[in-house]
Write a structure and sequence with these properties.
Pfam family, one: Bac_luciferase
InterPro entries: Bact_Lucif_Oxidored, Luciferase-like_dom, Luciferase-like_sf
Largest sheet: 8 strands, parallel, barrel
Strand content: 15-25%
CATH architecture: Alpha-Beta Barrel
Helix content: 25-40%
Shape: globular
Distance between the termini: 8 Å
CATH topology: TIM Barrel
Number of domains: 1
Oligomer: single chain
CATH class: Alpha Beta
Radius of gyration: 20 Å
GO cellular component, one term: cytosol
Number of helices: 11
Strand order of the largest sheet: 1-2-3-4-7-8-10-15
GO molecular function: oxidoreductase activity, acting on paired donors, with incorporation or reduction of molecular oxygen
Order of helices and strands: EHEHEHEHHEEEHEEHEEHEEEHHEH
Protein name: LLM class flavin-dependent oxidoreductase
CATH superfamily: Luciferase-like domain
């Protein structure tokens, strides 16, 4: 299956002398430069993880808007925004503006989020004092989806400073046509994937699932994708959904690659715990290109997805990460029929 191929960066920064990304400024500016390089290489997307209270990327929309202004073709997205922290109306304004700047290229992954650096960090943002965090994330998402499609939410002032359009309830502005169809839910289980389909959101599946049935990760994830597609069809949605998976893939084509990632060639799935729930973590793919092609050909979830996000070690700098992306595009993707 032909695939869109992009990168997913967690945007780490650390003042260590071993890091090429030593400040928040470095992380932001290098993210923009890597997105520009990715477009020049012929890849398809630049995606960013969002974390709070951490030395990682935390406020996505200024970054997405900046990348939108510097590029013209690639998709620009998140993987994922933790909706527990979000004001849905403010987020709708930011998303609409960033999408218009980018010419309708935003692909926003949202979700309940993963464990954070602090306990219940969303409460410091003023949300969820007396609510269940998971349900709050879904409620924030439902309202966000409503307002980006133009649903009126605010009662019009009968004596405004400027004339109001017709109607008693006014929508959030600006509106960006088509954005609703470019919202993805980061699903960590098969059950959540079914819910995602019912809501009419695309499926974003990561390198871990918060369940374990004893089968290899890629098979469990492929089952999740199939359940999503079945539920999508049952819901009667008119458009075709999209599905992304993320993978750590490192072609070893020179001595620098081998020094950094040679030991990962023996990587295997792992089972552990996240938020006190059993989880299965997918392995890292590292090896000479010929071996990588053989290994990746057996990954059932990649085969089932239309979009592949390459998780990149952003602290190694723009040039090295561009090299990794180029190596996948040159040595791996054509051999697997992804291009």
């Amino acid at each position: 299956m032909k695939k869109k191929i992009g990168f997913l960066s967690f945007g780490h920064w650390n003042p260590s002398s071993h890091s090429m990304t030593r400040s928040a400024s470095d992380a932001l500016l290098q993210s923009i430069e890597l997105a520009v390089a990715t477009e020049e290489l012929g890849a398809d997307g630049a995606y960013f993880r969002v974390h709070h209270f951490a030395r990682q990327l935390g406020s996505p929309f200024p970054l997405l808007a900046a990348i939108g202004a510097r590029t013209s073709r690639i998709e620009i997205g998140t993987g994922v925004i933790d909706m527990r922290y979000e004001n849905p109306l403010y987020m709708a304004e930011d998303a609409g503006a960033a999408d218009l700047i980018a010419g309708g290229r935003l692909q926003l992954g949202v979700s309940r989020g993963s464990p954070e650096q602090v306990l219940d960090g969303f409460r410091y943002f003023g949300y969820g004092r007396d609510e269940d965090p998971a349900e709050m994330a879904r409620e924030h998402t439902r309202l966000f989806l409503d307002v980006i499609t133009g649903k009126g939410v605010a009662e019009a002032n009968p004596h405004p400073m400027f004339p109001n359009p017709p109607g008693q309830l006014l929508p959030v502005e600006p509106q960006s046509p088509g954005l609703r169809e470019r919202i993805w839910w980061g699903a960590g289980s098969r059950e959540t994937a079914v819910w995602t389909a019912e809501q009419g959101m695309n499926l974003m599946s990561s390198t871990l699932l918060t369940e374990d049935t004893g089968v290899p990760f890629h098979q469990l994830q492929a089952e999740q994708i199939q359940m999503f597609r079945t539920a999508w069809a049952a819901a009667g949605h008119e458009r075709e959904p999209r599905v992304s998976v993320s993978r750590s893939i490192f072609p070893l084509v020179d001595d620098t690659d081998r020094a950094y990632f040679g030991r990962e060639a023996r990587s295997q799935d792992q089972v552990g715990y996240i938020d006190n729930v059993v989880a299965r973590f997918g392995k890292t793919y590292a090896g000479e290109p010929d071996q990588l092609v053989k290994d990746l050909a057996e990954d059932e979830a990649i085969a089932a997805a239309d979009t592949l996000l390459l998780t990149v070690p952003n602290q190694l700098g723009v040039d090295y990460n561009a090299h990794l992306i180029e190596s996948v595009l040159r040595y791996v993707a054509p051999e697997l029929g992804w291009r």
